[in-house]
From TrEMBL:
Entry keyword set: Hydrolase
Family: Belongs to the histone deacetylase family.
Pfam families recorded: Hist_deacetyl (PF00850)
Name of the featured protein: Histone deacetylase
Length: 301
């Protein structure tokens, strides 16, 4: 059974300028239901992540300042959202959604969070609209509880997973793979276990060929028993921030390759949505919905 984390708390009333990209978290589950891809029974409601679990991946002082709403104003500006209890709770819900989805993935093969992919949050900092790093916390959670031994985080958002790389720099059991726009945000990159920088304008054929080669090598090198997949759709040619030239079909083929590579090896996969900033929100939602459809196809739900 496909399990999907979703909760109304994912949507928080933010500044008007940020409302449009947040709409997708309402529209993705609605579209999945509308098309009959899933039913209401597939969704589960997460709770608030526990502080002890957050601390497996984040610095104590940073976490305390967020929870107490005493974060330094400079860090608040770096994050890009006005700090509030509602915003912090939203992040706690999405982190718990990814933790729970990772355990469902071990049971069913693959599981989703309709939000998440907050990969710019590092051990002691937030950035780029990310406060806590949901997949980093969930990876540390699985390792801490001996539910996995070797974890690979595959980040295919157009922006480098700098926060994830920062948290797991040099880690011997949790490995980071980031394939991203070389000239895109963040402009100062962290060092992932494997980084695959892309030139502006790269198209489907070159992108998919490079992904197949690099990811096959990563899977062989690290031999993971669990995968986290950050499936950002800001690689699309229609994306306002992406700078790449990937079609909707190319994005779907990307997902299919990741899912098939993991399924063939018997590796469970947790998926978080990541970024997407196309001019028309239908392009964002359709590409994300394709990720669910592709997982269902590959894993045989």
């Amino acid at each position: 059974m496909l399990r999907i984390a979703h909760h109304p708390a994912y949507i928080h009333p933010l500044r008007e300028g940020h409302r449009f990209p947040m709409l997708k978290y309402e529209l993705i589950p609605a579209q999945l239901l509308h098309e009959g891809v899933v039913s209401a029974a597939n969704f589960f409601i997460p709770g608030l992540a526990q502080q002890a679990d957050i601390l497996l991946a984040h610095d104590d002082r940073y976490v305390k300042a967020l929870l107490d709403l005493t974060l330094d104003p400079r860090m608040v500006r770096r994050i890009g959202f006005p700090l509030s209890k509602g915003l912090v709770d939203r992040e706690l819900y999405l982190v718990d959604g990814t933790i729970q989805a990772s355990m469902f993935a071990q049971q069913y093969g693959v599981a989703f969070n309709t939000a998440g992919g907050t990969h710019h949050a590092g051990r002691d900092f937030g950035e780029g609209f990310c406060l806590f790093n949901d997949q980093a916390v969930a990876a540390a959670y699985l390792l801490n509880r001996k539910l996995a031994e070797r974890i690979l985080i595959i980040d295919l958002d157009v922006h480098q997973g700098n926060g994830t790389a920062h948290i797991f720099a040099g880690h011997r059991n949790i490995f980071t793979f980031s394939m991203h726009g070389d000239k895109n945000f963040p402009f100062v990159k962290e060092l992932s276990h494997i980084d695959v920088p892309l030139p502006d304008g790269v198209g489907d054929e070159a992108y998919l060929s490079l992904l197949e080669s690099e990811l096959e090598q990563a899977l062989a090198r690290y031999n993971p028993d669990f995968v986290f997949y950050q499936a950002g759709v800001d690689i699309l040619a229609t994306d306002k921030l992406g700078k790449l030239n990937i079609s909707e079909e190319g994005c779907r083929q990307r997902d299919k390759f990741v899912f098939a590579a993991c399924h063939e090896r018997g590796i469970p996969v947790q998926v978080s949505m990541g970024g997407g900033y196309s001019v028309h929100i239908k392009d964002i939602v359709n590409a994300h919905v394709n990720t669910y459809k592709t997982a269902i196809e590959v894993f045989g739900f």
